[in-house]
Amino acid sequence: MPHTDQTSETGDTPSIAALLERIASALERLSPNADRSVDFTSAEAFVWHGDGAFFQPVAHVNRIPLEMLKGIDRTAATLLDNTRRFASGLAANNALLWGARGMGKSSLVKAAHAEAARTAPSLKLIEIHREDIATLPACLAQLRTAAFRFLVFCDDLSFDKDDTHYKSLKAVLEGGIEGRPENVLFYATSNRRHLMPREMIDNERSTAITPGEAIEEKVSLSDRFGLWLGFHNASQDDYLAMVRTYAAHYQLDVADGILIPDALEWATTRGARSGRVAWQFINDLAGRLGKAI
Question: 129: which residues sit within 8 A by CB, 6+ positions away?
């Protein structure tokens, strides 16, 4: 019997050691004393991680040149001008890019940053995920004292009916005691102009004593963005211009007589014409031609 007890104790030792090691590793990750400092000179873009309150450098930003974005010329010029003014230390507006899917909203933000950063390398791009919006105040607190200018970018920003994080965003953008740091500008993309589902606004209107005041709380979030840029579905000419631009850029040697009918058929099967559909067609075409892009 003593021998059995000793064997059992010895057999448990490795599992206990493994458990203690896991606990120690978890505590180390959660420790507020862990080194989360960031060197903003190490990259041109960073991703904010709200759960650990740190910035992750991005070695290579996934983007395309501004001149390759077709069908949004006026919108692109407006956002680029706003970005350049901010990069130069001048007054500029937070921007909301809203509208049709796949028309280059997020691509435009990244391309505008790249263009502005050519002459203002101190301009950094910070991506914050929608799930981390509640930690935006902590993010801005770290950026406020840095000797750089920052475009904080949230892609596909929207709020569900039970989500109250939009109130924090409103305060950060304009209404808080400290306000938005002078070295920070906020860009967001969304499929919704008012960032809230229509049924949420309708429910507020139907149940409130004063419907106008009820929906004002929901709609006023969009008002914090001084610049609204709308994106609409591409015309056939714009779609074909996108296809031709991609084909030329990636040196896909296909005659117009073949390229255009194939591109139109691809759009028909997808039921849409957009920059995203054009890019997907080019990927398929390049694959059929045996080329990597």
Answer: 47, 48, 50, 154
Distance in angstroms (rounded) separating the CA atoms of residues 48 and 50? 6
**83 conformational bin, left if phi > 0, alpha if psi -120 to 50, beta if neither:** alpha
If you classify domain 45-231 with CATH, what class do you get?
alpha beta
pLDDT tens string 145-182 = 999 999 999 998 877 766 666 766 777 776 566 778 99
Would you say 54 and 101 are in contact if contact means Cβ atoms under 8 Å apart? no
Where do we find the tokens 């309150």?
Answer: 53
pTM tops 0.90:
no
In 3D space, the residue among 10, 53, 61 whose CA is nearest the CA of residue 31 turns out to be: 53
Comparing CA positions, the residue from 112, 111, 124, 144 lying closest to residue 56 is 124
